[in-house]
Amino acid sequence: MTEQPPTHSASSDRPQTKRTSTWSLRPRMVVAAVIAALAVGTAVGVTATRLAQPDVSLAPEIKTPQPASQEEADNRFYALCRLAKDSFNAGKIEDARKYARELIAMTPQYRGDWNYGNAVHDANMVLGRIAVREGNITDAKGYLTIAGKSPGSPQMDSFGPNVSLAKDLLERGERQVVLEYLELCRTFWTMHLGRLDEWRQQIDAGAIPDFGANLDY
């Protein structure tokens, strides 16, 4: 998503002349040139593919432990959202960071899974809350935006996302990025029943909405 490099062979009965050494180098030169071109083309293709795929986190990539079975890997993937959120709420910040980053590292393997959207949103939400706690508001805003670009999930499509990071940023006066996040959530939260509009009006008025259960999901 290669073409074999062209080859050149001299006739066996061709007389040996001074030109023989020059022509014998041409196949090697052609092969080398083709290999170099293919290498450049591959690099460009890989770069273009990466640019075409949205990042799901600002966090650095980490290596994940190899599970004993696919079932074990699936169960781990499903558990990590809650582990990351519960660890943060319990004040276990390094555990929360570790679980969120592990979740991010696993997401490429689960693009078609029902939990993929939850993983994208919640891992970035937790990392954003950690960034707020550490005073890195710019990073936190970036995480919020990426979280809002989640494709959604059965849970979030019905009940909406956990908006704890949005609340953290509102408490620090970051209204615009929160409004943009809520508009992103509108693309998947089809059953918000007017709550997104109500929250937007309250934020426009300078208030912090009562997000209710959306701080616990």
Describe the structure.
The protein is mainly α and 217 residues long. Helices cover 61% and strands 0% of the residues. The chain has nine helices and no strands. α2 runs antiparallel to α3 (93-106), α3 packs antiparallel against α4 (116-133) and α8 (175-185) runs antiparallel to α9. The radius of gyration is 26 Å and the shape is globular. The protein starts with 18 loop residues before the first helix and ends in a 13-residue tail after the last helix.
List the helices and strands and how they pair.
Layout: H1 19-52, H2 70-89, H3 93-106, H4 116-133, H5 137-148, H6 154-159, H7 164-170, H8 175-185, H9 195-204
Helix pairs in contact: 2-3, 2-4, 3-4, 4-5, 4-7, 5-8, 7-8, 8-9
